[in-house]
Input
Amino acid sequence: IHSLNVDNLLELAVFAFASCLLVAHVFVFNDWSGIQSDVKDSSRVTWTFLTRGVSRSALGILSAVLLGLSLLLFAFLGKTSLSLAVALAGSSVLYSAPIFDLKGEPIFNSLLHLVGGTLHFLLGYATFAVLDARAVAIGGFFGLVFTAGHVTHEVRDYDGDLVNGIRTNAVTFGKRRTFVAGLILFTVAYAVLAALAVFALIPRL
Output
């Protein structure tokens, strides 16, 4: 945003609200999809929506409403923003939906987070500027950080995923190796950030 005015302040407000709705949809849809395994996980069962008196059908409706409102607002911001939002929702479906369930496919689940983290950045970028190679390069940093956080999160959830037979990276390759992989990814991400500054793709200060 080179300068603030009434138009782009309105766009910023719409983008912020639409993004919150989209992220909320992703989390709600993940909870809706994974409830059968969550109720078998002693560390999660007391926090599930079922124990709070919310039915699975009600949560499914909430997920759909959140997505619908989000896409409606992104449509207001333009075709590119809408397309990126749809792609993000699609990656969420691939990760969480029982029919695909890539959450339980090691490596592929991390690749989805790499793509998703990058798309999240590009979604904001595309709201105020034309997408270009520079945007994708910067987005890669956020994608790497998102992926590193994901594999670290898998280490924390190892016991529950093991009980439920969910083949995450931690379950497949072991907690220590997965934690080290997360550390390496975080390191690579900040090496990328440094490279972006060296090549003047982002401000050095």
About this structure: The longest helix spans residues 6-33. The chain has a mean pLDDT of 94. The radius of gyration is 18 Å.
